[in-house]
Structures are given as structure tokens and as C-alpha cells.
Amino acid sequence: MDWSLVFGNAAAELISPTTAAYALAAIGLAVHFGYTGLLNFGQAAFMAIGAYGFAVSVLNFGLSFWQAIAVSMILSVLFALILGIPTLRLRSDYLAIVTIAAAEILRYVVSTTSLKDLTGGSSGLSGFATEFYAINPFPTGNYLFWPFDVTEKELWVRVFGWSIVALATILVLLMMRSPWGRVVKGIREDEDAVRSLGKNVYAYKMQSLILGGALGTLAGIVFVLPRAVQPGNYVTGLTFFIWTIMLLGGAATVFGPIVGSMIFWVLLSLTEGVLQGLVNMGVITFLSTDQIGPVRFILIGLGLMALVVFRPQGIFGNKKELQFNV
Amino acid sequence: MSQLLITATKKFAVALGLFTFLFGLLVPASAFAVEGEPVPDSNVFSIGGIIKDGDVVLEGIEISVLGADGFEAVGTTGADGRWSVPVPGKGEYQVTLRVETLPTGASLRDPDRSQKTVKIDVVNTVNVLFPLNDTTTPAVKPGDKPATAETNVFLGRLIAGVNLGILLAMAAIGLSLIYGTTALNNFAHGEMVTLGALLAFTFNKILGIDLLLSALLTTILVAASGWFQDAAIWRPLRKRRVGLTQMMIVSIGLSLVVRYIFQIIYGGDTKVLSQGEIWDVFGVPTQAVNVISAGVGVVILLLVAAFLTKTRLGKATRAVADNASLAAATGIDVERIIRIVWVIAGALTGISGVMLGLFLQASWDMGFSILLLMFAAVTLGGLGTAFGATVGALVIGIFVEMSTLVIPTDLKFAGALVVMILVLLIRPQGILGKAQRIG
């Protein structure tokens, strides 16, 4: 058993594009929930829009890389509007159910066999990132050092993903310090008070939904760049993982989602590696190797429960800043 | 109120009548196969069908059947147009119509559908249809299709929809009662459905206990799980004054934990729970267990209605749901009511799980996959009202099954969720919800 490999793999998750994508989606969710108090349980849908909007634009309509991103963003705004118009006036628990339902509707639609020509049905899509790798500025070779050593392609997708994370962080930081951010946080604390000050609460909520959703869509694009688009990835479980990440770091913090995503993926990789190792060495006999996946999900569930009960403000959060109220 | 009591009493009497009637049916269930026909031998499997050109049956058409392990057989239609091929056992078979054996002029309505894959697992005999272009009655106007076949499909979907709706209603009432008394959106509710189905599978298929007794044991155990959940998780959280959103996220975590424990114990495959013979319901062949389930379901729903409107405990439950502090002020022990609600919800959801297991088959994530349908039912009817949940579940059940007449089958759940969102647009409080400011 090569333990350095286990720890190396876990450490490599720190900068992996998946970690970046989840961090980005969690930043979007933090805009929704952490700052505005919107119970969005459909972040997976925004990620699916990013993935499918991008892949379908490239594969079926022959658009360029940047055009495809633009199309995804437009679709994302439209989806936020469709989602927000009926639900943002409702009580927040209704919003939770409607967003989760909308995400599932979208998943059923992209995986239906009747749209197989467009979305690839249940087998998904691949081969849409050729242009992305063609504009890679890094020459062929190996980069960085163990355990982060990567090829030029892997380096490019990491640099791209984390640059977007950095830009999103700066954007959210500036937005939340602006008058707009103060109104939005006011809505989280007391919607009626903000309304009585003459602010259009509905419009602010809608803007927040669009902003956070757009970040989720970008996350969806970053997520699929190094892999294929699979409809099975956009189940409600994805949304719940993003929630876990956001709550882990701190919902109303700027760096919380990034650190949350890093911790989440490092721990996942570590538990998988360690469990695998212990099963192979015969230390754990009550599990087989294909039962390790479920064990990880059980750990995530337990972690989510413990986190939300004992430390709802997350690692970096300020308890006063985050009031959970329906 | 007195009127309500009278209707409730009537419902109760009807319920009791139905109850005894149905249990009378249940006990010698095997004796109640389609009248006049011998009970089918459970070890004989066959694939068959009838080939017709319009109303004229065709003789001498060849159909080949290929099985997974090299099984191959050819069936030929007889003078009555029927063919039948005995097959070795459960599994998937490729059924191909040999188009070259069709008489000149006759052709398949859909030329791409000369080959079909059929699966034998719940039913011993599967009929495969190859619809042909009707050459006997010329100039059929579009939309003027033969009435009987259309009505049959329509009726079949309707019956399946009502069936699903009734089973869904019991679980949805559980969800709704919990929401009504504690304001918790319980995302782990689907796992109680799964628990019901998997326990029934364990008792009935692994331990070989009689299905009725298995259902009873399962109901008791899932009710106990409701009690345990409340005692171990939800009451301590209420005492800590943990917020409702936090509790909702706790239930999401719990759902993940329980679901994957099921996967570790039972594996990721689908467990076949249903069994037995086929009954003829208004000309639609339906699984007998599902007909019985639906009947028992109706009885249980009526009993719940009687409980909520007639008994002291039921009234106290509704009082707590209306206004917990006011109920507490009138001397109702709110915590005790909540505990009872968890037990009742567990029992209802457990029995619904057994029946849904018989209807849809059991798997580790079946509850989670219908959780949103339950939420849709509860939201449609109006959050927190038990009667609303019943109406909502019936609407959802019928819509899910009927929509497959128009939209692809793999989109049927999506259609139901769209309906929920549309209803919320027009009537945010749900069909039976009280009109109040929401948000």
C-alpha cells in the first residue's frame, strides 16, 4: 500500500478543476443564500445549464468557445427569470421546493431519449472542448511539482478555472461592499424593513438569483472542460454537496466557499484512499471496495447534519451575520 | 362542525364496510384469479400476441424470440391470429416479427418497430403487439382510430394513475402531518418509503413470511422508526431551538446517510417484490396486489380522515397544526401530539412504502426518487393540510400516468413537477390551502 500516493492524490485535489468548479458554484449559492437568504435548492440546474449550454452550442451549432460561454450565460439569465418570477414572491420554503423541482425537470429534459440528437440522452456529450485546448498558451511539457505535477492541458484547465474563481471572488467582494450588497443583506435580515424603506425587494432578489445563477453556470462550464457531460451528474445530490461546501466554509463569507470546496474534496479523496487501503490490507473486513463510495456519502451526510446543528456559521463565519430563518 | 362529524361518521361506516370486504378478499387471494380460468402455474413463462390487419387475423406469420443465454424459438400465428412461445424463465427477450412472412400489402405501422425487447419479471405471460397498417378498412381519418384500443390505453393509464395517486397519498399525508405540526420540510421522508419497501422485501422474499404479515410487521417497524427519529433527532433539535431551515438541511443530511446505508445493505439493484396474478379491471389487466393495495389505501385514507375529524387526538392534532402555542394554552401537550404524529406518519408512510414497492418494485433510492412527487402533492393540495395532500397526490398520480399518452415516458415525472409550479403561480396556497399572504 502506497500511502504517499493516497496523500498525494488528496493534496492534488486542492487545485483540481473540480474543486474550482464546486467553489465557484458555492460562491454563487453564497450570493443566493448567504447574502440574500434565498433558499435555492436548484444550483445543480444552473450547473447543468452551463454544461449543456456550452456543449450543445459547440457541438450542434458550431459556435466558438467564447460564443458558447455567452450563450450559456444568456440561458442562465433566462432560467433565473423563469424560476424567479413565480417563486420569489412566495415564502422561502416554497422557493426551496420549486427550485429543487425545476432542477429535476431540467435534468429529466436533458436526459430524455426524445432529445437524444441534441443532448445525447442518458449517454451525454463529449468532444466539445477541442477549441478550449487549442487556445492553450502553455507549450507541451510537465509543470509544477509533486503532488501537483500536471501536463500542459491539465495546467491550462486549472489556470482557467481558478482565474474565474478569483474574478468571481473579487466581483462578489465588491458587490457586497456596495450599496446593492447592503440592501441585499438587509433583505436577508428583515425583508419587511427593507420593503418599508421603499426598496423593491422582488427586483433585488431577482438580481441576486441571476448573479448567483450565472456563477453556477460558469461553474458548470469549468466542471465539464476536463470531462464529458453526463446527465447523471446533475442530480439533487450535487446541489446538496454545494450546500455542504458553502456551509462548511461559511455561507456569508467571501473565502468560505473556496476553502470549503478544498476541504470537501481533500477529505473525500482522503477517506476514499484510506478506506481503499485498509480494505486492501484486510484491516477492514466488513466492507467491500465497491461499498466505499456509499460510505463517503454517509460521511458527507453526517458532516452536513453536524455542521448545520453545531456550527451553522461555518469555519469562517460570524454567528451574528448568519441567521437561519424561514 | 356537526355536519363535518356526520360526514366523518358516514365515511367511517363506509370505511369499515370496505375494510372487512377487502380483507375478506385478501386472505384467500390465490383463489381469486380471473374467473373460470385455472390459476396460472407460476413456473410457466411465455411470450405471445395476436397479429391483425385491421379486424382480420393473419395466419402463418412468424415471430422469432431470442433469449439472453442462447435461447431461440420461433412462433407462428394460428388460425385465430394468435401466437405463443414458451420461454425458459425470467429475463429479457428480443422479439422480432419476420416482416417477409407478412402477406403482400400488409406492413408494420412503424417500419422501425419490427424488433422489440420485452422483459419478463413480474408477469409470467407477456403480450407483444406489432400494429400493422390497416388495409381492410380504407381511408381512416386521422384521429378516427379504432375506439376500443384507444379507450383501453386511456383507461389503463387512468387506473394506474389512480392507483399511484392513492399509494402516494398515504406517504404524502405523513409528510403533510409532520409539516403541519412541526413546520419541518422533511427531506428524509422518502427514506421511510424505501424502508417500508425494503423491509417488506426482507420479510416476504428473504425470510419467506406471508405478504400480509410482512406488510403488518413492516408498518409497525416503520412507525417505530418514526418514533425513534423524533426522539433521537427532531425533539432534541426543537429543544435546542434550532431554526427550521437548519432542520430542513439536517433532514437532507439524514436522507443521504440513510439512503447510502440502504445501498450498502441491499446493494444498488432493484428488488422485485410484486407477485401473483393479473385481474381484469374494466377490461384492463392489472396486478391483483395493486388492486388490493389501492382498496386498502382508500380504507386507510378514510380512517385517517375519521381520525382527524372525529377523535379527540385527531382534533388535538389539527389544533396543533393550526396554532401550536394556542393549542398548548388550551392544555394540549404539543410534544406528545408531535410524537404521535411521527408514529402515525411512519405507519402511513411504511404501508405506502410496501404498496409502492409492490407497484414500482423496491430499490435503495426509490423513496428519494418519488420524494419530489410527494412534495408536489403536498404543495399542490396546500402545505400542511391532510386532505389537501390526498387531493394533491391523486392529481399528481393521475397526471404522471396520463401524461405518458402525450409526452415521452421518461419525462412523466417532469410533467408532474411542471404542473406543481404552474399551480403555485396561479394559486400559491395550493388547491385546498387557506388563502393567506405567503411571503
UniProtKB/TrEMBL annotation, chain A:
GO terms for cellular component: plasma membrane. It is found in: Cell membrane. It is a multi-pass membrane protein. InterPro entries: ABC_transp_permease (IPR001851), LivM-like (IPR043428). The chain crosses the membrane at residues 20-38, 45-63, 69-87, 94-110, 155-176, 209-228, 234-255, 262-287, 293-310. Keywords: Cell membrane, Membrane, Transmembrane, Transmembrane helix. Its main location: membrane. GO terms for molecular function: branched-chain amino acid transmembrane transporter activity. The keyword Transmembrane applies. This is Unannotated protein.
UniProtKB/TrEMBL annotation, chain B:
It is a multi-pass membrane protein. It comes from freshwater metagenome. Keywords: Amino-acid transport, Cell membrane, Membrane, Transmembrane, Transmembrane helix, Transport. Belongs to the binding-protein-dependent transport system permease family. LivHM subfamily. This is Unannotated protein. The chain crosses the membrane at residues 154-179, 186-203, 209-228, 249-268, 288-308, 340-360, 366-399, 411-430. Its main location: membrane. It is found in: Cell membrane. GO terms for biological process: amino acid transport. One of its GO terms (molecular function) is transmembrane transporter activity. GO terms for cellular component: plasma membrane. InterPro entries: ABC_transp_permease (IPR001851), BCAA_transport_permease (IPR052157).
